[in-house]
Automatic annotation (TrEMBL), chain A:
Organism phylogeny: Bacteria, Bacillati, Bacillota, Bacilli, Bacillales
GO molecular function (one): 4 iron, 4 sulfur cluster binding
Keyword Signal among record annotations: no
CDD domains named among the record's database cross-references: PsrB (cd10551)
The protein's name in its UniProt record: 4Fe-4S ferredoxin
Pfam family, one: Fer4_11
Keywords, comma-separated and alphabetical: 4Fe-4S, Iron, Iron-sulfur, Metal-binding
Coiled-coil annotated residue ranges, if any: none
UniProtKB/TrEMBL annotation, chain B:
Transmembrane segments: none
Keyword Iron carried by entry: yes
Molecular function as annotated in GO: 4 iron, 4 sulfur cluster binding; metal ion binding; molybdopterin cofactor binding; oxidoreductase activity
Keyword Translocase in record: no
Domain 4Fe-4S Mo/W bis-MGD-type: 45-101
InterPro entries per record: Asp_de-COase-like_dom_sf (IPR009010), MoPterin_dinucl-bd_dom (IPR006657), Mopterin_OxRdtase (IPR006656), Mopterin_OxRdtase_4Fe-4S_dom (IPR006963), Prok_Mopterin_Oxidored (IPR050612), TAT_signal (IPR006311), TAT_signal_bac_arc (IPR019546)
UniProt similarity note: Belongs to the prokaryotic molybdopterin-containing oxidoreductase family.
Keyword list, A-Z: 4Fe-4S, Iron, Iron-sulfur, Metal-binding, Molybdenum, Oxidoreductase, Signal
Xref: Pfam families: Molybdop_Fe4S4 (PF04879), Molybdopterin (PF00384), Molydop_binding (PF01568)
Designated name of the protein: Molybdopterin oxidoreductase
Cofactor section: Mo-bis(molybdopterin guanine dinucleotide)
Length: 178, 731
């Protein structure tokens, strides 16, 4: 059984939003709702300036607080480590939104369900890549099996010493190169 | 899958509304997954290869259509520009097919912002009547046609205007790459080379930003170059979004790029790092140029550009050492497409710098692409229109401009002078995008006939006498697109979904029917399929095969690295000295030229550029893209913190931007990423057409501040020759 995760090389991210729009179309989200948020961090003083762009979505934490706080068990973790929401069980209480350290959950105002990145589980089930990975114009995103030491994502994480965004906050499965 | 998901969502929505716990009596995720797998196995998702229309790159893409509705897109894996990827615009622009603000039937103007729907028959009859009358009274040279060219337009638009006897065909390049095109054309014989980025060791971009004006394969190549350890230098008054992939930012004073290139050229020669063999074999006029370059020292350039002389020397020397795998990227609009009075000469100097490096047709250098060998319509059966007698308007004033594009704003100028009487705009928002909107509006008001062919009520359409509604690119087949490059190829745009609005038509039908009404139908006596079959004939590929694949490349025709093609200049060589320039009354040698205007201590230069999510003004009305602007306040202007502090301006404050032409109100982003002399405004906003309900009222258009002007060499719009003052205001 695979344990899916992702690596994002922020040094390659140009902040183009292709992942956001591709994700919205894949998941048929309302335009106001996005599973991917972008944070910019500017450092230095003109003309010695650096601008870091950090795309953030559900980190599919192994110890996901959104799973443990969900009163109806609508949020759960699959055997492959993907954190999903059963929209049939979601009552829209937003407890998960408060619990998530990454602000990764959004409420769908059309349905009331509190949603989030699903690692495009139905595409993954077909052996394909999540939409954000497929479309990433600089190949900044790599997706795959973290348990397979030979997978592209595992090798890249080791090679580039990628780290979770906030290792202090739990066991996230998206690794960042910064 | 969608149906399943939608119905489920619909159920939850209803549940939520009635406060019923959604968990009761419904299927769980696992059952649903199984249901989905079952459903998707039974419901076929059609995958239709086509080409994007969100920008001029026209990347290959695949439309995923379910139950007759476009669901999503993926990049075409074989297309050289997309290579399996699409940018945000590429994904989002496709939603235009379902836009609430589509044009749905032909319209006739009754007065300011007043239109009545008419039939196509009436539209054709009246437009043809007026065109015929104007041509009879003023000659065909009083009629013009302008477009932002796409595959069908490139074929049909010039043919249509030529059929009417006029040579007046223009493109949007007057505010895109007219300067670069002219500079390159008269130096290396083509309006643009391409670049072998992934193999380059030293790459300089001047104003060009792969991360903002995106072609996905270019970004992939640049990321690959960086992985290979290439040096990547960005020359830009603003730290653009490609910066993450760069190794160095030269925060140049806007409008002084020419001085930088001249000084780097000076250093190359002084340090004996130019490729003398290449220069001897493939160029003319080197001695004269070298003589002129003697005075352009790095110290001189430091005073003009603000870039330390030591950095200029270091970079030039390192590029010289890395040659021929070193280059200045050819750019599009960038810093020398249409921006400054010196832009054409900057373009020329860039093409020459690459020649000094001897990087043409070298691995990691500049590349002359090859075109595919396509067929033509049989002229016996399908006669071509006669060559128009009068030359293209603007050719006399701007003999150096690339004739294929022309100088589109000459139409407005001649309208104001009473010479131009009719103008047709296809897929072109000239009234907002090409020149100062007040001047353009005034010019349009002088014309006896303005026709706009578009998918939405653009500012240009609003000023037109007749508006003809086209189907979107998602709903039409087009002429085969030829792709030139290292490997040539062809791509086909094709219909993905049925017409959404029954009274809209594809452009080839509109031209064919309008030509008939104008009495020149004999030049359009073929179908689109016949035309495409004729184009394909020499390739051995069938139309059916192309329709299935969408993009087909010809690897057997790949260029040979190291083999210089014949240079298409008058001398047959790369020209450091241009007789063409001399004959036209211009300096045959590049020299330093000051920008037309310069900011004072209390003012700024207004500069503009692209954002990755938008294209020209055509995407501002799409909710899926405009929402990103709103979420991240992307319409704001950028100001340097030192200047902001002097003016008492804080991040997020509302300010007034005032130029000789207009006054705008906007919020500011205070950022170290911008040169103190410049205000940056993204170039996609300021929609004034109230019929574009999403785009209307967001931000302002830089063009409102640009004085109506022509750059002396290429006729380009001088869009950065604008001085503004900024002050804080209360809302």
């Amino acid at each position: 059984m695979a344990r899916y995760g992702m690596m994002i090389d922020t040094r390659k991210c140009v902040g183009c939003y292709a992942c956001r729009v591709s994700c919205q179309m894949q998941n048929e989200l309302p335009v106001e709702e996005s599973f991917i948020k972008f944070y910019e961090k500017e450092t230095g003083i003109f003309p010695n300036v650096k601008n870091e762009i950090i795309p953030v979505q559900c980190q599919h934490c192994e110890d996901a607080p959104c799973v443990s706080v969900c009163p109806t068990k609508a949020t759960y973790t699959t055997a492959e480590g993907i954190v999903l929401v059963d929209s049939e069980k979601c009552i829209g209480c937003k407890y998960c939104m408060v619990a998530c350290d990454y602000g990764a959950r959004t409420q769908n105002h059309e349905t009331g369900v509190v949603e989030k990145c699903r690692f495009c589980s139905e595409l993954v089930a077909e052996g394909k890549q999540p939409a954000c990975v497929t479309t990433c114009i600089s190949n900044a995103r790599i997706f795959g099996d973290l348990d397979d030491p030979n997978s592209e994502v595992s090798r890249a994480i080791v090679r580039l010493n990628a780290q979770p965004l906030r290792p202090d906050l739990g066991k996230a499965k998206i690794y960042y190169v910064r | 899958m969608l149906e399943t998901k939608l119905s489920r969502r619909g159920f939850i929505k209803a549940s939520a509304a009635t406060a019923v716990l959604a968990s009761a009596g419904t299927v769980g995720f696992n059952e649903w997954s199984k249901e989905y797998v079952k459903a998707s196995a039974n419901t076929k998702i059609k995958e239709i290869p086509s080409t994007c229309n969100a920008c001029s790159s026209k990347c290959g893409m695949v439309g995923h259509v379910k139950n007759g509705r476009l669901w999503k897109l993926t990049g075409h894996p074989d297309h050289p520009y997309s290579k399996g990827k699409l940018c945000a615009r590429g994904h989002g622009y496709a939603t235009v097919v379902y836009s609430q603000d589509r044009l749905t039937q032909p319209l006739k103007r009754l007065g300011e912002n007043k239109f009545e729907p008419i039939t196509w028959e009436q539209a054709y009859k009246e437009i043809a009547g007026k065109l015929t009358q104007i041509i009879k009274e003023h000659g065909p040279q009083a009629v013009a046609l302008t477009e932002d060219p796409r595959a069908s337009g490139k074929f049909y638009s010039p043919r249509f205007i030529n059929a009417l006897g006029s040579a007046n065909y223009y493109t949007h390049h007057v505010v895109c790459s007219n300067s670069r095109d002219a500079g390159f054309l008269h130096t290396v014989g083509v309006t643009a080379t391409s670049a072998d980025i992934s193999n380059a060791k030293y790459i300089m971009f001047i104003g060009r930003s792969y991360g903002d004006g995106i072609r996905p394969s270019s970004v992939q190549s640049l990321a690959a170059a960086r992985d290979n350890g290439a040096k990547i230098v960005i020359v830009d008054p603003r730290l653009n979004n490609t910066a993450n992939l760069a190794t160095e930012w030269l925060a140049i004073r806007p409008g002084t790029d020419l001085a930088l290139v001249l000084a780097m050229s000076h250093v190359l020669i002084k340090e004996n790092l130019h490729d003398l063999n290449f220069i001897k074999t493939y160029t003319v006029g080197f001695e004269a140029y070298a003589k002129e370059l003697a005075k352009y020292t790095p110290q001189w350039a430091e005073g003009i550009t603000g870039i330390p002389a030591a950095d200029i020397s270091r970079i030039a020397i390192d590029m010289g050492k890395a040659k021929p795998k070193a280059l200045i990227e050819q750019s599009w609009r960038g810093a020398f497409g249409c921006n400054y009075e010196n832009s054409t000469e900057t373009g020329r100097a860039v093409a020459m710098f690459n020649a000094l490096l001897g990087n043409y047709q070298q691995k990691g250098g500049s590349i002359f692409g090859v075109k595919p060998h396509l067929g033509k319509l049989d002229e016996q059966k399908y006669p071509n229109p006669k060559e128009p007698e009068a030359p293209k308007a603007g050719k006399k004033e701007f003999p150096l401009a690339y004739e294929g594009s022309g100088v589109a704003t000459i139409v407005a100028k001649e309208a104001l002078e009473g010479k131009m009487k009719a103008a047709i705009y296809y897929h072109s928002n000239a009234a907002l995008g090409y020149g100062n909107p007040k001047v353009m509006k005034e010019a349009f008001s002088k014309l006896d006939l303005v026709v706009a062919i578009d998918v939405q009520m653009s500012e240009t359409a609003q000023l037109a006498d007749y508006v003809l509604p086209e189907v979107t690119y998602i709903e039409r087949d087009e002429v085969i697109e030829s792709l030139s490059g290292k490997v040539p190829g062809i791509a086909l745009r094709q219909q993905m979904v049925e017409k959404v609005h029954p009274d809209t038509k594809p452009i080839h039908e509109i031209y064919t029917e309008l030509a008939k009404a104008c009495g020149v139908g004999q030049y359009f006596n073929f179908s689109l399929d016949e035309l495409n079959e004729a184009k394909l004939a020499p390739t051995g590929i069938t139309y059916k095969q192309l329709k299935e694949k969408g993009t087909i490349m010809f690897p057997a025709e790949e260029i040979t690295i190291g083999e210089m093609p014949k240079v298409k200049t008058p001398s047959g060589k790369i020209e450091f000295y241009s007789e063409t320039y001399k004959k036209a009354g211009y300096n045959p040698i590049v020299e330093w030229i000051e920008p037309k205007v310069s900011p004072a201590n209390d003012s700024f230069r207004l500069i503009t550029g692209k954002q990755a999510i938008h294209s020209h003004t055509q995407t501002a009305n799409l909710p899926i893209l405009m929402q990103i602007t709103k979420d991240y306040d992307l319409e704001r202007i950028w100001i340097n913190p030192v200047r902001a502090k002097e003016l008492g301006i804080k991040d997020g404050d509302l300010v007034e931007v005032k130029s000789s032409e207009a006054t705008s109100k906007i919020r500011v982003k205070v950022t170290e990423r911008i040169h103190p002399e410049a205000i940056f405004v993204p170039s996609h906003y300021g929609i004034t057409s109230k019929d574009l309900r999403t785009g209307y009222g967001v931000g302002f258009s830089y063009m409102e501040h640009v004085p109506f002007d022509f750059e002396k060499w290429s006729g380009a719009g001088n869009i950065h020759e604008v001085i503004v003052k900024v002050r804080k205001v209360n809302s």
